[in-house]
Amino acid sequence: MKKILVVRNIEIEGPGTFGEFLEKNNAPYEILDVYNYDAEALSALDLSVICGVVVLGGPMNVYEEEKYPFLKAEKALIKKAIENDIPTIGICLGAQLIACVLGSQVRRAPIKEIGWYDIVFEESAKKDVLLKGLCPQMKVFQWHEDTFDLPAGAVLLAKNNGINQAFRSGGHVWGLQFHIEVNDGMILSWFDEYVKVGSEELSCSKIMAEYLAIAKDLEAKAESIYSAFLSLVSCR
């Protein structure tokens, strides 16, 4: 049986509710902690047993290959998956990595987005297999400082604050700048890891209160994406 490959860039940014959904639906998946692999090991992975790829987020930037050597090999892995027509979805850093692999520039965003933001989907999203159930707008969780140009030939699905928020390339590759997979534990762990104590810019309690207010709606909308993605992959 084939499986979905979940590429994790750092331990605290796991699959979250995406993984919970896959387990609930008996969809086989494997977490690949890409930071533990070198180029040779990643290139040796057998993609013939992979039916889908999910690339998660992380605090690193796509252009920090010297600091994070695994990024170069990870890009090669993503390129190989795309070339083999394997349904692929990237979340936050994952979306930026996909955009980079497809030839787009990734750079500092006009604003640093951390917390809850309303995004409005483009008209094209109404017919998109993953996002059509979310239109016309959705409150999403963000934690990023970079943005990406729209890859050549890709379809823009959402944009907000002058930042490309979602795109589709071909019929099987998606990039989502926002986090659909977060749960309360993940948000708390990110604050513990990424935010200095006493930061006046960010309020964990405020962000958590917003999460609790929309948690059920967020999970339902996220599961519509997961379900649509799962319908694209053939793990038999």
- Report the CATH architecture: 3-Layer(aba) Sandwich
Shape: globular
Oligomer: single chain
Please summarize the sheet with the most strands: 9 strands, mixed
Assign a percent range to the helix content.
Answer: 25-40%
Element-by-element helix/strand order: EHEHEHEHEEEEEHH
- Tally of contiguous helical segments: 6
Please state the structural category. Answer: alpha/beta
* Integer-rounded radius of gyration: 17 Å
Strand tally: 9
Annotated CATH topology: Rossmann fold
User: Taking all residues together, what is the mean pLDDT?
Assistant: 94
End-to-end Cα distance, whole Å, is 5 Å
- Uncertain runs are none
The CATH homologous superfamily name equals: Class I glutamine amidotransferase (GATase) domain
How do you describe this structure in short?
The protein is α/β, with parallel strands linked by helices.
Question: Helices and strands in order, then pairings?
Answer:
Elements: E1 3-8, H1 16-24, E2 29-33, H2 39-43, E3 50-55, H3 70-83, E4 88-91, H4 93-101, E5 106-121, E6 137-148, E7 155-160, E8 163-169, E9 173-176, H5 184-194, H6 204-232
Parallel strand pairs: 1-2, 1-3, 3-4, 4-9
Antiparallel strand pairs: 5-6, 5-7, 7-8, 8-9
Helix pairs in contact: 1-6, 3-4, 5-6
Would you kindly provide a written description of the structure presented here, covering whatever features stand out?
Strand 1, helix 1 and strand 2 form a beta-alpha-beta unit. 33% of the residues lie in helices and 28% in strands. The termini are close together. The chain has a nine-stranded mixed beta sheet with strand order 2-1-3-4-9-8-7-5-6, sandwiched between helices. It contains six helices and nine strands; from the N terminus they run E-H-E-H-E-H-E-H-E-E-E-E-E-H-H. It has one domain (3-232): Rossmann fold.
